[in-house]
Amino acid sequence: MLTLFGYGITTKAIAKKFGKCRIYDDKFSAVTSDKYGNEFLSSDLFNPDKSILEVTSPGIPPTHPLIQKAKNLVSEYDLFASSMPYSIWVTGTNGKTTTTDMLGHLLKKRGGVTGGNIGTPLATLDEHAPLWILETSSFTLHYTNIAAPNIYVILPITPDHISWHGSFEAYEEAKLKPLQQMQEGEVVLLPSKYTDVPTRAMKITYDNAEDLAEYFDIDLHKVHFREPFLTDALLALGVTKILFDEIDYDRINSYHIGKHRLEEFVDAKGRLWVNDSKATNPDATVAALESYHEQKIHLILGGDDKGASLDTLFEKLKGMDVDIYAIGANMERLREASQKNELSFHECRTLDKAVAKIDRNHDTGSVAMLSPAAASLDQFSSYAHRGEDFFKFINNLS
Fold first, then answer.
1. How far is Cα of residue 278 from the mean position of the Cα atoms in its chain?
2. Residues 286/228, Cβ–Cβ less than 8 Å
3. 145, 135, 141: which is closest to 164 by C-alpha?
4. pTM score, two decimals?
5. Are 155 and 235 in contact (CB under 8 A)?
6. Strand 272-275 to 296-301 pairing
7. Phi then psi for 293, rounded to 5 degrees?
8. For residue 313, what are the contacts with CB-CB under 8 A and spacing of at least 6?
9. Distances 384 to 120, 376, 389, 391 between C-alpha atoms, Å
10. Looking at the domain that runs over 79-253, which CATH code has it been given?
11. Virtual CA dihedral for 258, 259, 261, 267, nearest 10 degrees?
């Protein structure tokens, strides 16, 4: 009988696919079962000596007692390693969802399907599809020891999820871990700082969009994206060049960036508001600011910063015309950083108050921007919830 840790999207799909699983979760208080023959038990009932194989929800940290007790622990990826078709994995700190989605858009005509951290568990993917394109999180990679990609796309790795991994070095190590399992004939696209990381796979290194355009002979004038999405598009086009020796400009240009990532809205007064709620770490916000650096910016920051350093972000901000509107759990950290860098700081605490305060200062020559540089779960159910509330509060302005 398969043992599952946590009852989230990943393990729910596994339980439904296989049935007769034992599922341990902190939120279960009584032993129950479902129509598939799965048993639900509290975490403290787990006995490692009576378990043959354990699969964990990727979000459960290594310090959890279930993980500490497990003797036969594998990841979702490892569980499907033997049945996984040709696979392209996409990781990095920022841009992996967009790059995965762009690849899915480009490769749909070839039968490619997307899954993983993008929101679709592997247990629900078609194992007969010719290509799996998987957005791959550091949490999943931490627990993955068997499975490996055929093509691995690594976007820049910058500090994130420090509190989960324990250090940036451990986070970085998780991202680079699949290189150990890759073989000759496979390919990894990775930032040039990792040139010396050992692997049997062929390495294609880059520092910027221009490097990728030169390597894959892509005409940048024919790609209708600007950063931070240009590099994502070039990585996706590079993969299709590797696989099928094609660069489909028309198809990549028909791709539409998803919600909550530099999503622009002009209100009834002609003022620009930007929803960048998906910027859940400082480097994502730094990239977003580049698009508006010549304008006055009213910037909403704050949330659960997961222990990430704010230094790079404030180094960027102190050279800009920007006012900080702070919300969320790390508001005091933002206050200290703003004072240290002599930036205008507004204590707002909540998003509705930040929008209301910006409304009094915003005009047609400035930009109002939600790019929090932090996760949302301290005040919202998700970054999408945060972005939707942002627009709701704007629409409610009198």
1. 8
2. no
3. 141
4. 0.80
5. yes
6. unpaired
7. -65, -15
8. 282, 283, 285, 286, 337, 373
9. 17, 9, 9, 11
10. 3.40.1190.10
11. 130
Six-digit token string for 39: 């048993």
Cis peptide leading into residue 121 (ω within 30°): no
**What would the two tokens of residue 12 be?**
């729910």
Sign of CA dihedral 34, 38, 41, 43: negative
The enclosing H or E element of 312 equals helix 311-317
Give the residue extent of every domain in the chain.
Answer: 3-74, 79-253, 263-395
Q: What was the pLDDT predicted at 7?
A: 95
- Contacts for 254 with CB less than 8 Å, ≥ 6 apart: 105
pLDDT tens-digit map of 232-241: 999 999 999 9
Judge contact between 382 and 376, C-beta under 8 A: yes
How far from chain centre, in Å, is Cα 190? 17
| pLDDT band at residue 88 using 50, 70 and 90 as cut-offs | very high
Q: Distance between terminal CA atoms of the chain?
A: 59
Helix axes 351-361, 383-395, angle to 10 degrees: 40
Radius of gyration of the chain (CA): 22
Q: Give me the residues paired with residue 4 across strands.
A: 23, 55
Distance CA 151, CA 166 (A): 28
Identify the helix (H) or strand (E) that includes residue 189: strand 187-191
CATH of region 263-395: 3.90.190.20
Query: Other C-beta atoms within 10 Å of 321: how many?
Result: 12
Contact 122, 116 (CB under 8 A): yes
Q: What per-residue confidence (pLDDT) applies to 206?
A: 98
On whether the CB atoms of residues 231 and 262 are closer than 8 A, the answer is no
Euclidean distance between CA atoms 119 and 117, whole angstroms: 5
Three-state secondary structure call for residue 42: strand
Other Cβ atoms within 10 Å of 30 Cβ, number: 7
If residue 79 lies in a helix (H) or strand (E), which one and from where to where? helix 76-79
C-alpha span between 160 and 388 (Å, rounded): 24
Find the mean pLDDT for residues 281-300. Answer: 92
CA distances to 132, 218, 241, 325, 338 from 83, rounded to whole Å, are 11, 34, 26, 49, 51
The SS3 call for residue 61 is coil
Q: What is the mean pLDDT of the chain?
A: 95
DSSP bridge partners of 189: 153, 204
